[in-house]
């Protein structure tokens, strides 16, 4: 049976790179909110950004069911920043009898800031189409993210550059 892997982590924690690695290892399709938002709106969807993200997440959850029915593993690259979002995602798939794992990419604050700075330089140099993380976005992400408890997570990954082990 096809499986769902949902990747949890702060912005710039390495979710997209991790999703790419898993995609190759597991023969999966990655569904990314940021990828679609950036393709549709560039770096700014304006005041409607959060509304579009909510709609897009619902669409991708529904679309994933088609892929899973076809026997294709699905990886969600979208952060799962809150406990409620993680609980709802697990429940969505559990109600349908679909195996779902949540992988959390943990990293220290110093490493997080370093990654944000590195990504911002790459955005300014035109080397990536990712979001530029200004102080407002940083504060928003930092205030919204609820670090998961161990019992919420199936695979806990200590992000590269941070002390600790994968587990």
Give a short summary of the structure.
The chain is α/β, with parallel strands linked by helices. The chain contains six helices and five strands.
What would you say this structure looks like, in words?
The protein has 167 residues and is α/β, with parallel strands linked by helices. Helices cover 48% and strands 17% of the residues. The chain has 6 helices and 5 strands. It has a 5-stranded parallel beta sheet, with helices on both faces. It is globular, with a radius of gyration of 16 Å. It starts with a strand and ends in a 9-residue tail after the last strand. The relative contact order is 0.22.
Notable characteristics:
167 residues, alpha/beta, five-stranded parallel sheet, globular
Would you spell out the secondary-structure blueprint of this structure?
Layout: E1 4-8, H1 15-26, E2 28-32, H2 33-41, H3 49-69, E3 73-79, H4 83-94, E4 100-106, H5 109-124, H6 135-144, E5 155-158
Parallel strand pairs: 1-3, 1-4, 2-3, 4-5
Query: Which ranges are low-confidence, i.e. pLDDT below 50, for 5 or more consecutive residues?
Result: 163-167
Q: Any idea what the radius of gyration is?
A: 16 Å
Q: Quick one: overall form? A: globular
Average pLDDT level: 92
| Secondary-structure element order, N to C | EHEHHEHEHHE
